[in-house]
Amino acid sequence: MALRERPSRGAEQTMSTLATVATIGFVLIAMLLSLRLKLQLEGDMLLSTIRAIVQLLAIGYVLEFVFSSNHPLFIICILLIMLVVAAQNSAKRGQGVPYVFLRVLFTISLVSALTIGMMLAFGMLQWKPQAVIPISGMIIGNCMIVSSLLLNQMRERSASMREEILVALSLGATSRQASERLTRDAIRAGMIPIIDAMKTVGLVQLPGMMTGLIIAGTSPIEAVRYQLLIMFSYTAASALTSIILGFLIYPTLFTRAHQYIGWK
After folding, report:
1. pTM for this structure?
2. Choosing a second label site near 254 at 20 to 30 A (CA), which of 71, 90, 158, 226?
3. Contacts of 34 (CB under 8 A, 6+ apart)
4. Which residues of 225-253 are buried (b: 16+ CB within 10 A; e: fewer)?
5. pLDDT tens digits, the chain, 264 residues: what are they?
C-alpha cells in the first residue's frame, strides 16, 4: 500500500473562490457571539483568521512550486522548517528547562525520521513531495502536541509532587528513582489523546485524511486503509515522543549531586 495521488471525480468536488470566501462567515458568527457575551476574544479571532489566511496561502504557493520541481532538496527544506517551528512552539511550554528547544527538536526529529523512514522502507509511502510533505506534517504536528502535553504535565506534577520527591531523596533515592512516578504519569498523560482518538475514530468523527481522500474520489475502503496507517503511526510516534522527551527532561529537575532544584 503506497500513498499516491488520486484523481478527483470531477469539477463538482472542487471549491469555488466564492465558497472559500464565504467560509469567513463561520468566524464572523464566532466573533459576534464573543462580542455579545463580552468574552473579549474577537480581536484574537480576527488576528488568527488573518494569520491563517496568509500562512495557508503562502504555503500553498510554496508547495505548488515544490511539487512541480520535485527536487529532494526542497522537500528536505520544508521538513526542516516544520521541525524547527514545531520545536519552538512546544518549547514555550517548558520555559525554565535548560536547552528545552534542543531537547524537543532532537526528540521530534528522531521520532519523525524513524516513523517516515519505516513508511518509506516498507513501501507504505512513496518518496514524492505530494506524499512525504503532508504525511510528515501530520506526524510532526502530532509529536509537537505530545511534546507540549508532556512538558505541561511535568511542570505541574513536579510542583505538586515536590514534597514526595524531596522525601524520596532524603531516604537515599537517586534522582531517577525519586522522579519515577512523575515521569511515568507525565508520559501516560502525553499518550492519552491519541488513545482516546483511536477509541472513537469512525464513531464520533471521520478523520481529516480519510475525509479528504473520500472527497477527492478515493474509495471509502481504501481511504480507511490510509487512515489506519496514519492512526497507527500516530500511536507509535506519541509513545516514542513521550518516552524519549520524558527521559531527556526529568534530569533537569536535579543537580548532578541528585539535589532537587525544580524549574524556575
Report:
1. 0.81
2. 90
3. 40, 41, 42, 45
4. ebbebbbebbbebbbbbbbbbbebbbebb
5. 555 544 444 434 456 777 778 888 899 999 999 999 988 898 999 999 999 999 989 989 998 998 888 888 999 999 999 999 999 999 999 888 899 999 999 999 999 999 999 999 988 888 888 889 989 999 999 999 999 999 999 998 888 889 999 999 999 999 999 999 999 999 988 888 888 888 877 766 667 777 777 777 778 888 888 888 888 898 999 999 999 999 999 999 998 888 888 886
Residue type at 258 in one-letter notation: H
**Which amino acid, 146?**
V
How far apart, in whole angstroms, are the C-alpha atoms of residue 264 and residue 252? 11
Nine cell digits for residue 33: 457571539
Quick check: 129 and 63 in contact, CB under 8 A? yes
Q: What is the DSSP letter of 250?
A: G
